[in-house]
Amino acid sequence: MNSIATLGSHCSLQVLKGAKEEGFNTVLVTKSSREKFYRRYDFIDEYIIVEDFQEIMNDDIKDKLLETDSILIPHGTLISEVGIEKIEKLDVPIFGNRHILRWEADRNLKTQLMQKSGVSIPKTFNSPEEIDCLTISKLSGARGGSGYFLAKNSEDYYSYVEKFKKQGLMTDDDELQIQEYIIGVPVYFQYFYSPLKNELELFGIDKRYETNVDGLGRIPSTDQNEIKLSPTYIVVGNLPLVLRESLLVEVYDIGENFVTASQELVPPGMPGPFCMEGVYDSNGKFIAFEFSARIVAGTNIFTTGSPYSYLTHGANMSMGRRIALEIKTGIKNQTLDKLLT
Ligand code: AMP
């Protein structure tokens, strides 16, 4: 029997709980500082203790994963703490398409894949001098929404760059992507694509609770002006959301088009969980500013299932469990090769 393994962070509790529910042995790679915390949960069978997640590249850790016949479930912490280059070389089976993670991390590749899928995306500006509307500038790399700033013209832009450099948030080598800021409500679509059934499932929808941007409205505008507040976008949690039912038709189209585009540009495409992230603007049009090509932490809201997973699977189907179910089916039908890279 295979084991399901992941790094202790992000969505590991949900992933391993779901794996246990589907009958798998579960393996957690955890930093020693979090071992006590994770030992509180009885659905984790084996612990591999490290000081740094980079140790996953070491032969002794790799051997432990191979001895337990582990399939590694990638998530945001694997990308941010181990890095794309190493993930591509890691000699352990990974669930999903490990090559598409590079397309998530690299802003140019990301834009290319989103354009190919046909989803509307914000206008991007090649130089600050071109800015002609409210923009959001983003440092490259997964930084959890810190190091972003809003600018409505090039003067704003350069004064923020100066400020960020002084604060040590960026260096001369850092690249910024300048994107039109879409005014509206941010929404995150969580999908699961099953290559075994050749079917897309809408798994859940959430919004993020970001500091300090979600707290700014609690401060009167006169005070905001006086203390010269600017927004940051650091995610502290997620809130569940259901959409107007009439919007769901397009949500499925967006997901299916993304799967098709990923199959063309990054074979084998997008097996497993992914997320499309965007804003409904004031005309009710969805404009996507990001995607995540793996499980997102927003699925943690739905450990017992979401209003949407309930429609497809009945009660108690989390994204973690859905991954394990797909792996179980792949083992049973001898089609596991369609799910791993
Ligand atoms: P990201 O790291 O790209 O997921 O963005 C972090 C947060 O910044 C999002 O959750 C949104 O609140 C906001 N954001 C990012 N891009 C845009 C955009 N183009 N228009 C409006 N808000 C954005």
Kindly describe this structure:
The protein is an alpha+beta fold. 33% of the residues lie in helices and 25% in strands. It has helices spanning 12-21, 35-38, 59-67, 76-82, 84-89, 100-105, 107-117, 154-166, 221-226, 248-265, 307-313, 319-333, and strands spanning 3-7, 25-31, 46-50, 70-72, 124-125, 135-139, 148-151, 176-180, 184-194, 199-212, 233-240, 272-281, 286-292. The chain starts with a strand and ends in an 8-residue tail after the last helix. The structure holds adenosine monophosphate. Adenosine monophosphate binds at residues 122, 136, 145, 148, 179, 181-182, 186, 208, 210, 233, 277, 279, 289-290.
Which features characterize this protein?
alpha+beta, four-stranded parallel beta sheet
| Helix content bin | 25-40%
Which hetero compounds are present in the coordinates?
adenosine monophosphate
H/E element sequence: EHEHEHEHHHHEEEHEEEHEHEEHH
- Rg to the nearest angstrom? 21 Å
Q: Strand tally, please?
A: 13
Give the integer mean of the pLDDT values: 95
Shape: globular
Number of helices: 12
Strand content: 25-35%
